[in-house]
Design goal:
- The complex is a heterodimer of chains A (about 350) and B (about 550).
- In chain A, the strands form 2 sheets. Chain A has a two-stranded antiparallel ribbon. Chain A has a two-stranded antiparallel ribbon with strand order 2-3.
- In chain A, helix 2 crosses helix 11, helix 3 packs parallel to helix 6 and helix 7 crosses helix 8.
- Chain A starts with a helix and ends in a 15-residue tail after the last helix.
- Chain A is globular and about 60 Å long.
- Chain A has 13 helices and 4 strands.
- Chain B has 3 domains: about 150 residues; about 70 residues, no CATH class; about 290 residues, ABC transporter involved in vitamin B12 uptake, BtuC (Orthogonal Bundle).
- Chain B is built from 23 helices and 4 strands.
- A two-stranded antiparallel ribbon of chain B has the order 1-2.
- In chain B, a hairpin with a 2-residue loop joins strand 3 and strand 4.
- In chain B, helix 13 packs antiparallel against helix 19.
- The two termini of chain B are about 40 Å apart.
- The chains are: A mainly alpha (about 350), B mainly alpha (about 550).
Chain lengths: ~350, ~550
Amino acid sequence: MWSIGFVLLVLIIIGSILTLRAGRYTTVQWFDFVIYGLAQGSIYALVAMGYTLVYGVLRMINFAHSEVFMSGPFTAYYVAAYFYRSSLLESHPFICLIIVFIVSMSISTLIAFLLERIAYRPLRNAPRLIPLITAIGASFTLMYLFRGLYGTGFQAYPVWKVFTGKWALFKGLEIGKIQVFVIFAAALVMIALYLFIQRTRIGKAVRSVSEDKEAASLMGVDIDKTISITFIIGGAAAGAAGVLYALVFKQVFFMMGFIPGIKAFTAAVLGGIGNIPGAMLGGLLLGLLESIGPALFLDGYNIVAPYQLKDAIAFLVLVLVLIFRPTGLLGERLAVKKA
Amino acid sequence: MEQIRAIWRYGIKVGIIGGLVLVLMALIGMIEVFTKRQVIADFISMGHVLYLAAGLFVCYMAAKRTKPAKPLWVISSSFFAGLTTTFFLVLLIILGRYINLRMMFINASDLLLNNLLTFGVEGNSGLLLLLYVGMFTGLITGFFYLLPNVVRTVILWSLAGLVFAGVLQDLFRSILTNNFPNIISEWLLTSDGLTMKGAFAIFIIIALVIISWSIKGEGIKQGWQNLPKKQQLTWRTVGTIILLVIILVAPWRLGLFMSEVLTIVGLYVLLGLGLNIVVGYAGLLDLGYVAFFAIGAYVTALITSPEIMNLNWSLWAAIPFAIFFGILAGVLLGVPVLKMRGDYLAIATMGFGEIIRLLVLSDALRPFLGGSQGIGKIAKPQILGFVFKGPQEIYYLIIAGCLLVIFVSWRLKDSRIGRAWKAMREDEDVAQAMGINLVSNKLLAFGTGAGFAALSGVIFGSKIGSIYPHSFNIMVSINIVCLIIFGGIGSIPGVIVGAAALIGLPELLREFAEYRFLVYGIALVAMMLIRPEGLWPEEAHKRELHEGTAKEATG
């Protein structure tokens, strides 16, 4: 088993050396890769929080979390489009942005809450396969419900003029305003959530439930309420991440959650599922790997169109982590027992 | 006072939920699309049946929840549930008059809001009619709930059967026109929907069957059990032979479209039976199963197609290669995931499946695998000059494959390996302690399943003639897992029932394709909540599930 890992490592190193020696990319390009990767990664990190928190308390993979991520920005699109048409977006961009965030986060939160209430709560003691199938079913239901409501088309998100353009740094390096905003906003939400989990009474309850449900309930923690709150926190983070994603990619549609959802799950596993700082670290790392990886590891071998293999790299990372370090980089602090 | 509180708790609250659900149903356009199909010609459409059925269900739930179940209380809470539900729809319609809902909800058309929801009556009188219908439905449902159990069952089942007949009218039409004199089909069916006479006849026939079964059913069961073993066996054999004959002549008696549906269902049965060995017998949840299907199809394409490798072998020669590579891939992908369990295994295998699809899709491997253009001109199998070209011929190939796989699964199930798998499924650690070699048994399960998937891949490839990476996305894997669980995990008839329900039904209802996955998702969730053991469960598994809940309930 380890020999496979070793071979892969050698291949990656040789590929990197070949790429760097060929010198096909300039420093500016590498810098861009890193910034894009960080922006993308911070979005993954926010979504990964939802997976990790839910895994912590329920020991289940919430497959429908990607739809929680989609529902918020898809609904908020109509608010944003209204602002755009009434030219409020021109005059008060930040107020509009805040309102869009609030709408998106509340819709995602509502969906996450209802999801737990309707689909997962009755199955809390069922065998493990059953909640997983329910989650897949719920994911379909939500995806196609929103498709029915808002249609199948791609909706172009309005552009905030304040975020277009770049800031010039030294030596010809430039940094996109939107990327800076995404990184900062994501960091802000993450720090807020982290402090909420670590410092407040409710956060303490969430942590205690993920440590040991029975002991927590003996200590007077309301398990049902705490699990609901966990879904709400995850939903809020996903709603915020969704708006950031829509701002970067400028479009929303009903299946937009699927790929980021799987990526975010990968990020959660990479950092150690059930571990909150792990989700953040995993998200950032995965974003970086995805944006630098194809150029760095594959281009050296003269592979045609390495960018098409971006997703394959992400999945490979997932599989490799699961094989070689299933506890993730930071270890599974919250979940001692698996399966 | 007490009663007002009961009305609020059981009537209005249920009505609010129901109202919101109905508003959603209207807004996603389900009602409008479904009105295009008539259940009873010129009388009622699918959309209105759905609409009324949802309303009836809400009122029924309200009536059922009412406690204590005094007649007056039941009727009043059902009445208020109906009223509240329609109240929400009225609100929606009024809202639609002042705001252009279509800005946001793409399906909130004028026709829907001002005509369909109000049963064709426009304007304010339509709103009033809607409210009256709500109250009337509530009252009727309340009285209906108070009827004796037998009467309720008979009416409910007959109505359900009637709707079912209306929904599946295409199937019945093709059975009737192809096999019986035209008079029958003309009497029962128009070109769109059942005739009034036909609907009454179906209703009465189903009602009679149910009534006679409830009177005589127990006697017949007793009589069957009292028959000597030998006679039972004879009857069973006769039954099996009749079933086989029906299966064999089916494509020629049902027409081209139905044969196409049958081949699709058959392919999924084949895939499902293969995965059933991995998931159902050995308990290894594999979400990357489509990878082996793809490998089978691609090996076939490479060997038989003039494109890319230009080997041009016959399809029969491709089968052993495809199966060999399938099993090889199964074992190779099985090795790294040997130590994983449960969700982790599911995710890792899903990752593998996606990696394979992305590799096939990429331009990097285009010279070898065709990239997004796929590979075309795959050979059709032929035997002594008989070419399996259309769905009606391929069908036999699929039936042969299914029979083979059913036989193998059936023999494996209680064999030494099958029992080892079962032990592994229940508890890996204990199984290992009992001397079961986990490594070899797991790899055997992965290999067997992958081999069957590759076989289906061969048939699939030659059926559609050219293959594209998009045919092998993760949805296929998820579909297969869902149909296995829907039918009853580990059960062979369950897989067939599951494939018919989850793959066949949506194929028959093509014009509702838009809502296919929505209904699919709701059905999965509902199934897991109400009947987690599946439609046709394996006995042992069903026992386990119910034992588990019983234990948790007491301890």
